[in-house]
Amino acid sequence: MARSKNIPLNISGIFQLAQKENWVVEYDAMLDSFYWTKPIISKTAKLKKFLDDFSLYINHLGHIEGVFIEYAKYNFAAHNEDFKVLFDKFDQLENGKYVISTNRALDIQPILRNMADRIGNETLEAIEKGLDLNQVAVA
Amino acid sequence: MHHYSDSFTDFEGLAVCVRWTQKVWDSHLNKHPEIQSPEVASEMIRDVLATPSLVMDGTREGDGQVRTRCYYKEHKRAKNSVYFTKVVVGCNAAPHYVMTVFAQWLFWGVLVQEKKYPNFKEIWRDPKTYL
Hints:
The complex is a heterodimer.
Chain A: H1 14-20, E1 24-28, E2 33-37, E3 46-49, E4 55-58, E5 64-69, H2 72-76, H3 81-84, E6 91-94, E7 97-99, H4 102-105, H5 109-128, H6 133-138
Antiparallel strand pairs in A: 1-2, 1-7, 2-5, 3-4, 4-5, 6-7
Chain B: E1 4-9, E2 15-20, H1 22-31, H2 38-50, E3 54-59, E4 66-77, E5 81-90, E6 96-107, E7 120-125
Parallel strand pairs in B: 2-6
Antiparallel strand pairs in B: 1-2, 3-4, 3-7, 4-5, 5-6
């Protein structure tokens, strides 16, 4: 991350958290939805959207469990060149679901790190505009 | 064989169905644990479709044909946020069919995603909603 701050919810540590917890990447082509989440999301996790393009799964303890992007390929990536390549890496599973195969998992790490950095930076900008992350955590 | 199927009527009297296989259900349940069970999911869908706070039609570029309809139902507001359920319905088959349902918190200053895109048009809005 270009800037660092002690952010509640550990938003600055999403990439490291994802690696530690073996988050999985999935694309739902029918919904054009992108998920980068824990393999099993907790029953207490809620989707919270405080950034323009990213929603975060946050559980009752304030722990982040994943990232969700709506209209991911045809709007978000289409307007964000850095992420376009991510959608070339998916393999079709079934029912319009796409996953990243094991042999491509390493290839996408720089893209995911970039995404995590962007979430961190956009969160800092939102905080500067008045966002209270403690309120996000408890909502 | 569908693991989860049900039928609904939206606020305009349009028929909407849900027909999900076990795999589709399991995938949705993992991504959106608040749906809990087919019974709870049906309650959520029925409520949103019947009395939405906001409805937006998404059209396909080129022919302008409505491909999806997004129904939102605002449930409650906190100091700086709003909690809602969203149901996305596919409109390219009859009856229309539920593609997803989930709940979300939205914080002030952030728009529901469809409002960012010109191919989505608001067709219904409760004047009291924040959404």
